[in-house]
């Protein structure tokens, strides 16, 4: 090795050993504030959160009527629990990169310098050495694993399947979030319809109270009728206050699901009107087809399938302990006293191949294999249990949907009959042919039947969303909010 090569090698070693100079902070568009630590970019969480809150605030300012689809899109973009699930996916992806690094050689560089003061005894034994003496060393080492019983292969497979597990877990979190948003949204719509029903009841009784007062003044009515209708007005107002409280609670819960920081919508936002049922909503799906779809599309089922594959890979990694390990290593070392002027006489090297084969370790490897096999069996049983649970959820949701549809048909017919009856009783009361008690009953029946109709309609919508969540189909028609804005 020539002196020039030796100096180049030394400079290379020292440059590797020198500490890295932290770079200045550099911004990245759309990603918040970026802090660079030893050449590694790290997202500043506080700045990122501020940017996200400002973006969400801008979106909410553009919305006047919040429909279910938009609510879901906002939740997918801003809900912090979903952001945490995405972070877990990133962690799993980085574990894949860590496992893949085992296929590459490991290269290490080192350098040191020391000043040595020797004792009088050492000086006497060495003759006439320099005291103190400066010693400098530098080395470059490379190690490459050629064979490890396929442990690297199975670790990579395990990491990849673990990454897929995290992705499916993220998808399942989205499925559950979408179902929760739908439930919260329909709770809000139900409460708002109850507000409208209570207001209509209040208006009806106020009109009756006004007419009763006019009849009393004309001498054809009684004070008890006036007082009765005033009591009914107060009862309607009580129901109105309760419905308004339910609406506020539903909106607070929905805002929390959407990731709004203070769990409160701006005052200008209102929910979309509760529309009537469609023919498609009144048509029952084929349960068996839904079950087959759920078994192949539910993310929690796929998550358990990847967990089973990962467990099988762990068995292979455990069995790698029965095989030898072959490594190739090379090193270049330099050592010099007094100064750092390395030359050819100061530099040496070595090339080594090692073969390691464990003969006995107290049954450790066999125990690892048995543990991995037991974990695989556990995962198989977990997968079976998940499939059974999914099947049960789909069947139950389908039965609830059928019941909700039948109830809606009955309530829709009942409202027509009860409204017609109330109108007839009202005319009879005004003509003096029906009692006040009969009118109160007819109005109360109408109010209750209208409330049951709204509840039946909302129950039908909830049942559809629960069924779609049970099958995983709820994930198919959701766009990303960024695509919507573009």
UniProtKB/TrEMBL annotation:
Biological source species: Desulfonema ishimotonii
Pfam families per UniProt: OEP (PF02321)
UniProt-annotated location(s): Cell outer membrane
A GO term for molecular function: efflux transmembrane transporter activity
Entry keyword set: Cell outer membrane, Membrane, Signal, Transmembrane, Transmembrane beta strand, Transport
Protein name: TolC family protein
Family from the record: Belongs to the outer membrane factor (OMF) (TC 1.B.17) family.
Gene Ontology CC: cell outer membrane; efflux pump complex
Source organism phylogeny: Bacteria, Pseudomonadati, Thermodesulfobacteriota, Desulfobacteria, Desulfobacterales
Record carries keyword Transmembrane: yes
InterPro entries linked: OMP_efflux, TolC-like
Signal peptide boundaries: 1-23
Coiled-coil segments on the chain, per record: none
